[in-house]
Amino acid sequence: MKNITDSFLSLGYWTSAGSFGFNTDILATNPINLSVVLGVLIFFGKGVLSDLLDNRKQRILKTIRNSEELREGAIQQLEKARARLRKVEKEANQFRVNGYSEIERDKLNLINSIYTTLEQLENYKNETIRFEEQRAINQVRQRVFQQALQGALGTLNSCLNNELHLRTISANIGMFEAMKEIK
C-alpha cells in the first residue's frame, strides 16, 4: 500500500505536506463521511421534524375537538328526540286506550333512527381521526425523505468536482493494477 502512495506522490498528484494529505482509502473515509452527513441531517432536521409533528398534532387535536362538538350536537339531538319520545309516549298511552298501535311503531322507528344516526356519527368521527393520523404520518415521512435526499445530494455536489472525481478514479485504477501485480 505504501508503494501506491509513494507512486502517486512521485507522479505529482499530491504533495506531501507533513501530516496533512488526502486519505485515498475509501473504506476508511466512508464511515467518517456518513457519520458527518447523518450528524448534519439530525442536527438540522430535528427542528423541522418537530415543527411538522407539532403542526400535525394541532390539526389532529382540532379534528378531535370538531368531532366532539359533533358528538355533543348529536347528544343534544338525542335529548330533543327523547323529549319528543316522551311526548309520543303520552300520546300513545292516550291512543292505546282507543286501540291505535301505529303510534307505537312510529316511536320504535324514531328510536332506531336516532341510534343509527348516533352510530354513524361515531363511526365518521373515528374514520376522520384515523385518516388524519395516517395522512400526517405520510406527510412527515415524505418531508423527511425529501430533506435527507436534498441534503445528501447537496453534500455530494458541493464536495465532488470533476478533478477530484478523476483523481479518485485514477487512484482506484492504480490500486487495482497493483493488486493484480501482487496476485
TrEMBL record:
Assembly and oligomerization: F-type ATPases have 2 components, F(1) - the catalytic core - and F(0) - the membrane proton channel. F(1) has five subunits: alpha(3), beta(3), gamma(1), delta(1), epsilon(1). F(0) has four main subunits: a(1), b(1), b'(1) and c(10-14). The alpha and beta chains form an alternating ring which encloses part of the gamma chain. F(1) is attached to F(0) by a central stalk formed by the gamma and epsilon chains, while a peripheral stalk is formed by the delta, b and b' chains.
Coiled-coil stretches noted in the UniProt entry, renumbered to this chain: 64-98
Keyword Ion transport annotated: yes
Signal peptide: none
InterPro entries hit by this protein: ATP_synth_b/b'su_bac/chlpt
Membrane topology: Single-pass membrane protein
The keyword Ribonucleoprotein is assigned to this record: no
Lineage top rank: taxon: Eukaryota
Official protein name in the record: ATP synthase subunit b, chloroplastic
Protein task: Component of the F(0) channel, it forms part of the peripheral stalk, linking F(1) to F(0).
A Pfam family assignment: ATP-synt_B
Molecular function terms from GO: proton-transporting ATP synthase activity, rotational mechanism
Protein family per UniProt: Belongs to the ATPase B chain family.
Listed transmembrane segments: 32-53
Alphabetical keyword list: ATP synthesis, CF(0), Chloroplast, Coiled coil, Hydrogen ion transport, Ion transport, Membrane, Plastid, Thylakoid, Transmembrane, Transmembrane helix, Transport
GO CC annotation: chloroplast thylakoid membrane; proton-transporting ATP synthase complex
Gene this chain is encoded by: atpF
Location(s), subcellular: Membrane; Plastid, Chloroplast thylakoid membrane
